[in-house]
TrEMBL record:
This is Polysaccharide biosynthesis tyrosine autokinase. CDD domains: BY-kinase (cd05387). It comes from the Bacteria. SUPFAM superfamilies: P-loop containing nucleoside triphosphate hydrolases. It comes from Corallococcus praedator.
Amino acid sequence: MDSTMERAGNFLPRVDESAASSNAVDRRVVTLTAPASAAAEQYRTLYYRLERMREQRPMKVVALTSAMPGEGKTVTSVNLALAAARANPERRILLVDADLRRGQVAPTLGMRNKQGLAELLAGECDVRDVVRRFNATRLAVIPAGATPEESTQVLASARMKQFLKAVREGFDEVYVDLPPTLPFADAAILGHQMDGVLMVIRANVTPSKVVNQAVEQLAGAALVGCVLNGAEVNATPYLKNYVKK
């Protein structure tokens, strides 16, 4: 797998034709659908904060998770990866959907999900069969693929470790959309193999007790910060006044 991934990092994957229509992209992908919006600016701010962290420590592979489903981790992952691709067009950026139970990266981007990480880890296909370049960007995407019977076992396998080693060598930045932390062991298993982990929290929805439990479950992982998702502009008076000008 290593040599194959090394080659993958040296070519620009073919465009996924099913993502050619902007209408297929989820409207919450604001870095594309509303690039001048305050929400899009927040994703760019998040990206540059990570860049500043990279000045202090190596952080090539960054994962995003949440305590529970429905907190917006996938939308955050997609927007962050697109912000990275736009900010640094000379870099090789990869977005991986590692939520093998309910992968949503492909539907969010309006892309096909026929083959992905699950099939790659099962040895059923080559990396060139699963890596896609999204639309007119330089963002490479690996969707989740079909849900395997034993997702946790697949993600804890030696093949997954080999895959992560390979993408470190083949790409400059890798963003990994992990499953929610509390319902499954998947995020805890993979979190320890990441350079940094971001916890996505739904504003006014996720109880602090639940967030604390998720953080405890990730103990030992490099948790670098939290992303407050779904906060109203009204909650930040300065931003509200600035946007009005």
